[in-house]
Write a structure and sequence with these properties.
By secondary structure, the chain is mainly beta. It is built from 2 helices and 29 strands.
Length: 394
């Protein structure tokens, strides 16, 4: 990695200014886990694995591949877009950059949001609220998957190494650092260094290019995401085999390495971020909508079993009409996009309405019913749905 004399001088001046206005130590750490976002105090205490659940389905359903946080908003990479939520409340999640093609990686500065589109090989940006998008800021990259911003430079990591450009995408340099190691996809920065993750290690290089330490921290698992503050470096640490991933932490000089700083119940974490606020209580959002699947009839007693797909654990009730029902939750692992399949069993019941259903079943063999269903994810507001079915009996 090489820099001109003028650039080294400018970098030194910028670092001096940043040192004079050093930020306070971070007070919150966030990570992506099982389709949601977890949060804890910066020392790992009071972990909340269900801190925030992004709306689903949407372009920003996720998180999928990256987190970033500003002084007011938390950003995440969804399957097809970038979402954000205001941390000071009320919670108003929104997709700020929709309809992207396999995004992976997000970074912010004081004015802009930057993202990677892995499949398209490009970096895009927009204002922090998603306005004035520039979908092709830098193009022609080789499967990029991480992005960071520091000073006047934008950096990315792809299969060839680490590249950079100015913040407006001009003066691109494709390979300022090569040999970042297999599996390298994580990238972070502070006022002095770039940090990158590889399989089993974290490397760093000073912004002036004079100090390159590819084995800055070793003995790790797969490093899937990175974040730094004034005092610490955080990463998503994936273990081999059927072992849950963790959030790791070390001092900023690479000492006091703790791979299991925050244990999780996810095999892969979808990003890590830190900021300078105490972790607020999550503000309830409407639960994500339920999805309905196969309906099975018991022709002997007129009951039926309906497959119901829900995003998270919670409570599901039939609010109307007054008939007999039971939710057979079971204990399956998360399915596609973190969904669970529950089975809702319904039958005429012993109410006055149930008597009418049984009479119709005897006379007609078929009784239409409009089920009014309420579903509340744990810690969220209830969502309602209506499903029309027909009980059958012979």
């Amino acid at each position: 990695m090489s820099f001109g004399r003028r650039e080294v001088l400018a970098c030194a001046l910028a670092l001096a200014c940043l040192a004079m206005a050093a930020p306070a130590a971070s007070a919150a750490v966030y990570w992506g886990e099982n389709g949601g976002i977890g949060a804890a105090n910066f020392d790992g205490t009071s972990p909340n694995h269900d801190y925030f659940q992004p709306p689903f389905p949407s372009d920003s359903g996720g998180p999928n591949c990256g987190l970033a946080v500003s002084d007011s908003h938390l950003y995440w990479v969804g399957a097809w877009g970038i979402g954000r939520v205001n941390l000071d409340g009320p919670a108003a999640p929104a997709t700020v950059s929709p309809h992207l093609e396999q995004p992976c990686g997000v970074a912010i500065d004081s004015t802009h949001l930057y993202w990677i589109e892995w499949k398209m090989g490009l970096v895009g940006r927009a204002n922090l609220d998603g306005s004035a998008p520039e979908p092709v800021l830098v193009s022609g990259l080789d499967h990029p998957c991480g992005v960071t911003v520091t000073g006047s430079r934008l950096y990315w990591i792809d299969w060839r190494g680490i590249g950079r450009s100015r913040l407006d995408g001009s003066e691109p340099e494709r390979e300022i650092i090569t040999g970042t190691g297999p599996g390298g996809c994580a990238l972070a920065s502070d006022s002095q260094y770039l940090y990158w993750g590889a399989r089993g290690s974290i490397g760093r290089v000073s912004l002036d290019g004079l100090h390159n330490e590819p084995d800055f921290i070793t003995g790790l698992g797969g490093v899937g995401a990175l974040a730094v503050d004034r005092d610490h470096i955080y990463w998503a640490d994936s273990n081999e085999g059927m072992v849950y991933s963790t959030v790791g932490r070390a001092d900023i000089d690479g000492s006091d390495v703790n791979r299991a700083f925050i244990p999780t119940e996810a095999f892969n974490l979808a990003g890590v971020a830190v900021d300078a606020r105490a972790v607020p209580s999550p503000r309830p959002l409407p639960s994500r909508p339920v999805q309905f699947g196969k309906l099975r009839h018991n022709l002997k007693d007129g009951s039926a079993v309906l497959d119901v797909w829900v995003a998270r654990r919670g409570d599901l009730v039939v609010t109307a009409p007054k008939l007999g029902y039971k939710v057979l939750k079971g204990n399956p692992p998360p399915y596609l996009e973190g969904s669970f399949r529950w089975r809702l069993k319904v039958w005429p019941g012993k109410t006055r309405f149930g008597k009418k259903l049984r009479t119709r079943l005897r006379n007609k063999g078929r009784a239409p019913v409009a089920l009014h269903i309420s579903y509340a994810e744990t810690g969220q507001l209830a969502a309602t749905a209506v499903k029309r079915i027909a009980l059958q009996q012979r």
